[in-house]
Amino acid sequence: MEKVIGIDLGTTNSCVAIVENGTPVVIPNRGGYKTTPSMVAVTEAGKRLVGHIAKRQAITNAENTVYAAKRLIGRKWNSPQVKNAVATSSYRIVEGPHNDVRIVLREKDFSVPEISAMVLQEMKVIAEDYLGETVSKAVVTVPAYFNDNQRQATKDAGEIAGLDVIRIINEPTAAALSYGFGRNIEKTVAVYDFGGGTFDISVLEIGAHGVFKVIATAGDTFLGGEDIDARIIDWLVSGFQEENGIDLRQDRMALQRLKDAAEKAKCELSSVRETEVNLPFIISSGRNEALHLQRTLTRQTLEELSDDLIERTVEICKQTLEDAKLTKSEIEEVVLVGGMTRMPKVQQSVQAFFEREPSKGVHPDEVVALGAAIQGAALVDDKQEMVLLDVTPHALGIMTFGSYFEELIPQNTTVPTHRTKIFTTSRDNQTAVKILVMQGESQRAEENELLGEFILTGLRRAPKGQIEVEVTFEINADGIVSVRAKDLETCLEQSIQVTATSGLTKEEIKAMMDNAKDDLVDRRTSEEFEGAKQEAEKLIAEIEKLFPQVQQIVASSDFGRDAIEKAKAIVDKARAAIDRRDVTSVKEQIEGLTRTHRMFKGVVAKT
Ligand code: AMP
After folding, report:
1. Which of 37, 252, 253, 370 has its CA 20 to 30 A from that of 359?
2. Does the annotation mark 193 as catalytic?
């Protein structure tokens, strides 16, 4: 049977695993390590380095060594995350030709998927060395909170690396697979995944016969161990500034050394109560005198420095349980994933929140890759009984007339899935509609993320609301979204796979939306319309009830007959507006209906 490797492509470290004779195992690299730093460098001689060897030379070649590329994958140049990385990275990040991100190494530009591809290729080689044969298929994991562009870019990275990525799965889901594999358990499990760059929490139901169903998932793609490192760096830098009046941030090399020292101190403090940060000759005072940095960091200080970050992960857990409509006591197991869960304070906070001791059975650095390997094996082996039901982390929908976000697929819907809704044209003689595909939870479209857009043309000219457009969203098993719009009259169709425009700034999204306003579709049953319709129908019913009486009273005068005719016309107009589902017109008629109703009641009351 064809071998499929599972790769955990991490922000800081990556790991590769395979199922051998029914048992998932992690494959060590040539140095005997089970994880490999997700670092890439180019040396002065133009040689490409990946993994431990790249990490070892990072200090002396900081400008040409890439770390944490995962934070940039699938993002657009003008996104806040990229701006932040540009300001804080020791390597150069520049704008690419498609509003994307490029990394400059020795004067050559690389796209982020190219950099990630080098890491994936290294994992492929590690597996091939171990197996003694070539490997071409892989399951690669991504944070559950990754959006469509980030997933697609990860797939691209696999392709560049010469790997057929047969499935992208979410990291916490992979962890649960690994936890539940072969145990024949039925349990509700929370996976708390705190890694180098991201935080994820997922709640899953592990059912009989190997069914893994994700109930809810949430996270923050910009909250990880590196943020804790940054707090330590701040603490060291400001201490040094107070003592020596020199800002160490000015020096790239010093900053890289600080980064290393901060991470090392943080990891050490997971097993000891205090540690010394010692960086001799960190900078020159400018008077031909080298300065050293030497400071003791205690576990308690580290905990104070990182308290709010850890608290944020707990808040996200709380929210996720609420979304899943579960109480803490319904969670039967908590699985810890990611290097940051080695920090005692993190373990204590998780334990305090869930009121139970986290599972000790899984290895936080390996569990994700093992889960990916399990999924890989299941995909090529028909005999394996395993069903993986993941969910979409964000609601998906389109923008409709009036800048509303009309949801088609709610958050936490099991994927693969597809949903269809019918919309109508929003103005008279509209011959094209623009579909703005969005992801997010807000009712206001501009507050959500724009994923892509396309235009369906060739609609017949007709009064607004008459032409119906059927919009279908589909999410495949990789979590990748495609959207289709169909003119129900001509059956003409347009579709996109959503990969286009994520990462735009809010202003740009707003501008794009303003430009598109005239061409948008309308909700067929908007809440606004439903409200107006109800009000109008209530008035019509009351007017009609009074009609015979009023007619009897006023029919003898010309003025009265005229009033009756006008009232009938208003009622007819209102009915027509309701039939057209034209909310503006219904609202206009409500005024006339109210006047007529008041007049009718007056006439009846006088007699
Ligand atoms: P991951 O993305 O899962 O590989 O996690 C990497 C993160 O875990 C990095 O921020 C590491 O500094 C952090 N980490 C690794 N080992 C430890 C440890 N023993 N104590 C605290 N943090 C750790």
Report:
1. 37
2. yes
**Can you spell out the DSSP letters for 34-84?**
SSEE--EEE-TT--EEETHHHHHTTTTTGGGEE--GGGTTT--TTSHHHHH
How confident is the model at residue 503, as a pLDDT? Answer: 42
Contact yes or no for 373/167 (Cβ under 8 A): no
**171 catalytically annotated:** yes
pLDDT band at 498 (very low <50, low <70, confident <90, very high): low
Please give the DSSP secondary-structure letter assigned to residue 244. Answer: H
Tens-place pLDDT, residues 27-56: 999 889 999 999 999 999 888 999 999 999
Residue 251 bears catalytic tag? no
Residue with the smallest CA separation from ligand 1 atom 3 is 338
Atom 7 (ligand 1) nearest CA? 196
Q: Confidence band (pLDDT; 50, 70, 90) for 513?
A: low
What DSSP state is assigned to residue 445? G
When pLDDT is cut at 50, 70 and 90, the band that residue 214 belongs to is confident
Ligand 1: distance of its center to the CA of 97 in Å? 34
Our mutation pick for probing the ligand 1 site, out of 222, 226, 267, counting the most ligand atoms within 8 A of Cβ, is 267
How remote is the CA of residue 176 from the centroid of ligand 1, in Å? Answer: 20
β-partners of residue 167 are 139
Q: How far is CA 33 from the centre of its chain?
A: 31
- The token duo for 269 is 């403090």
Burial class (CB in 10 A: 0-12, 13-18, 19+), 428: exposed
CA dihedral for 89, 62, 305, 242, sign (positive or negative): negative
Tell me how far CA of residue 188 lies from CA of 202, 213, 245, 334, 568, in angstroms.
Answer: 11, 9, 54, 9, 62
| Radius of gyration of the chain, Cα coordinates, nearest whole angstrom | 30
568 is catalytic: no
Comparing CA positions, the residue from 49, 69, 48 lying closest to residue 196 is 69
Beta strands 414-415 and 387-391, pairing class: antiparallel
DSSP 510-569: HHHHHHHGGG-EEETT-HHHHHHHHHHHHHHHHHHHHHHHHHHHHTTSHHHHHHHHHHHH
Please, what are the domains in the chain? 4-224+308-389 (3.30.420.40), 396-498 (2.60.34.10), 506-606 (1.20.140)
User: How sure is the predictor about 523, in pLDDT bands with cuts at 50, 70 and 90?
Assistant: low
End-to-end CA distance of the chain: 93
Distance from C-alpha of 282 to C-alpha of 290, rounded to nearest angstrom: 7
Residue 505 has pLDDT above 70, yes or no: no
Choosing from 192, 227, 266, 362 the residue with most ligand 1 atoms within 8 A of its CB, the one to mutate for a pocket test is 266
Q: Hey, which bits of 83-184 come out as E strands?
A: 92-95, 101-105, 108-111, 137-142, 164-170
Helix (H, G, I), strand (E, B) or coil at 205: strand
Q: How far apart are CA 228 and CA 565, in angstroms?
A: 76
Q: Which of 55, 70, 213, 533 is catalytic?
A: 70
